[in-house]
Amino acid sequence: MPAITVDDVLVLPRLPRLDPATTTVRPVHRLIRGCAADRVGPVHPPIDGIMDHQDSQGGGGTITDGDTQWMTAGEGILHIETPPEHLVASGGLFHGLQLWVNLPRAAKMIAPKYQDIRGRAAALLTTPDGGGLIRVIAGEVGGRSGPGSTHTPINLAHVSLQPGARLDLPWPRDHNALVYVLAGRGTVGPRQQPVHVGQLVVHGSGDAIRVEADASQDANVPAMELFVMGGQPIREPVAHYGPFVMNTRAELVQAFEDYQKGRLGVIPAGRIPHTG
């Protein structure tokens, strides 16, 4: 995939080898088939393609292969995304993810913030056998920290596994853990449950995530591609409707009123490019 690649992964730092005597590999708690998470959209890591965007704070820019835009809505921000004119005219592919990351009650109304995370800024490491490439977008994975800034402990990583390679990923026991299969097929968990493109794995408790790519992949899939994510549960009530995520219904009503009365601002005709 066009996301950041490395010619020789063996020069990268490696994940530690896990001690089977002291490591609990997380079991599969739930396998969601045909998950609709693989869509364009407030964390957007595009894998292929290009997208222009603007917001009501006057910011804007372009994200492309391997980049991540991380928008913290806070007390309110308007945002639009469009493919560039040349892509509309010529046609092409955009392949990316939209993730909604909840904020704790104490941070719900902070000032809006935008993070323009370039693919080259991701921390890189490989598996002990050199068969995997891990790009750390946020949090800490295997001792490497990603560039994304978060309000609660969160880990996000994009992983490429070559056919037959295995990922044993250390994962904090107090975090939940999800793996979304972007491409390819393989097995997951200690019982080697089959998993393929478009499926989301919800893990049970433990301190490591295990995924193994099948030795044989389709001709158009050079590697199994995974998006690995999780964090400390916030454990607060959630009320959501449309683009708003709050703690109570009354807060949702207030959010819609603020939007309808223009309190979230307007998106100007021009834009100021984000620089980081």
TrEMBL record:
It holds the Pfam family Pirin_C. Residues 47-101 form the Pirin N-terminal domain. Residues 157-264 form the Pirin C-terminal domain. CDD domains: cupin_pirin_C. The lineage of its organism: Bacteria, Bacillati, Actinomycetota, Actinomycetes, Micromonosporales. This is Pirin family protein. It comes from the Bacteria. Belongs to the pirin family. Signal peptide: none annotated. InterPro entries: Pirin (IPR012093), Pirin_C_dom (IPR008778), Pirin_N_dom (IPR003829), RmlC-like_jellyroll (IPR014710), RmlC_Cupin_sf (IPR011051).
